[in-house]
Design brief:
Radius of gyration: 20 Å
Largest sheet: 5 strands, mixed
Strand content: 15-25%
CATH architecture of the largest domain: 2-Layer Sandwich
Shape: globular
Structural class: alpha/beta
Strand order of the largest sheet: 3-2-1-4-5
Oligomer: single chain
Order of helices and strands: EEEHHEHEHEEEHHHHEHEH
Bound molecules: 5'-O-[(R)-(carboxyoxy)(hydroxy)phosphoryl]adenosine, zinc ion
Length: 327
């Protein structure tokens, strides 16, 4: 079995995964959304303090598995430096105490593997990662052959939802809150410009759209009815930006199996629009279970199973956090 730890942002999570079967024997996550909500975003030092409380509490519940652990895995990159350290320090202590190898997992590969929790892997695939930290398209051939073919030049898709929610004083995380508000709004009420729509680049950008929404929110003042239309129009254009760029990309690279992963892959409007986009290509759409879209340790454990089989271990001395490295 492998014990895996996730603490790259605002979720403290630990999982136990059986190596031979991919079976998830234990998974627990303590989210910090409420604590960060008043600030409209994640406060790193507060997050670190909360991980330091939550992780030992969860670890207490998995002691019975200790004698059967073959390795300990931990998200070591990318993420918030002060929160990554919490998980990595705990993993190192476990590796030393139990004399087992340590596996440093890339959080982005974790999101890809959220598709394969308790399942076999399914490669090759084209994967859209939409989270709070990332918006990128990857061609995934295997665990070690992942090529990023498009990414955001500034804000991420999820982050833009968080920022719009903050402007409206709704709280954090913004994704589910904006999605809920948008349900009763008119998607065509505000004619926001689709980012980079005239550019031949296959890349993403959300800072311009965010500023356009800011002006609309200011103009709406206290008229909360208008917020619904702004939310719906914003969600529509934020999604249209993704589908327009993917459509362009599919002109040269035909999708066969397509996946959407990351916290924002829970967005229902995005899911429906991507489904439409894939129809003419007869491509299969694969998604993670809703509970595994956002950060969790089960996906880290699932990557670790494949890394274990390929003997991709680190030494306790060498394993370090890399807050900014990507894929
Ligand atoms: O993957 P994740 O849990 O954390 C990162 O690795 O960043 O993603 C969290 C992000 C947040 O920005 C949150 O607002 C967004 O995912 N999100 C959504 C939805 N649910 C979560 N964005 C849009 N629509 C949603 N339904
Ligand atoms: Zn994530």
């Amino acid at each position: 079995m492998i014990l895996s730890i996730e603490s790259s942002c605002d979720d403290s999570a630990i999982a136990i995964t059986e190596i031979a079967t991919n079976k998830l024997l234990f998974h627990k996550k303590i989210s910090q959304e409420l604590e960060h909500s008043v600030y409209g975003g994640v406060v790193p030092e507060l997050a670190a303090r909360l991980h330091a409380e939550a992780l030992p509490k969860i670890l207490e519940q998995v002691k019975e598995y200790f004698p059967r652990l073959k390795a300990v895995a931990v998200t070591s990159t990318p993420g918030l430096a002060v929160t990554l350290v919490e998980g990595v320090t705990m993993a190192k202590a476990i590796a030393i105490a139990l004399d087992i190898p340590i596996i440093g997992v890339n959080h982005l590969i974790g999101h890809i593997y959220s598709l394969f929790i308790e399942k076999e892997t399914q490669f090759p695939l084209t994967c859209l990662l939409v989270s709070g930290g990332h918006t990128q398209v990857m061609e995934v051939k295997s665990l070690t052959q992942i090529e990023t073919v498009a990414k955001s030049m500034d804000d991420s898709f999820g982050e833009s939802f968080d920022k719009v929610a903050k402007m409206m004083g709704l709280g954090y995380p913004g994704g589910p809150l904006i999605q809920e508000l948008a349900k009763d709004g008119d998607r065509l009420a505000y004619n926001f410009t689709v980012p980079l729509h005239q550019s031949p680049l296959i890349a993403f950008s959300y800072s311009g759209l965010k500023n356009a929404v800011r002006l609309a929110v200011q103009e709406a003042g206290d008229d909360k009815e208008k917020y619904k239309d702004i939310a719906a129009s914003f969600e529509h254009i934020a999604t249209k930006h993704l589908t327009m760029k993917l459509k362009k990309y599919f002109k040269t690279v035909k999708p066969n199996t397509f996946a959407i992963v990351g916290g924002a892959s829970a967005n229902l409007y995005l899911r429906s629009q991507i489904e439409e986009l894939l129809k003419p290509h007869k491509a299969e759409l694969i998604l993670s279970e809703l509970k595994y879209c956002s950060d969790n340790a089960a996906m880290i454990g699932r990557v670790a199973v494949d890394m274990y089989k390929n003997e991709m271990f680190s030494s306790v001395e060498e394993l370090d956090i890399a807050p900014r490295s990507g894929l």
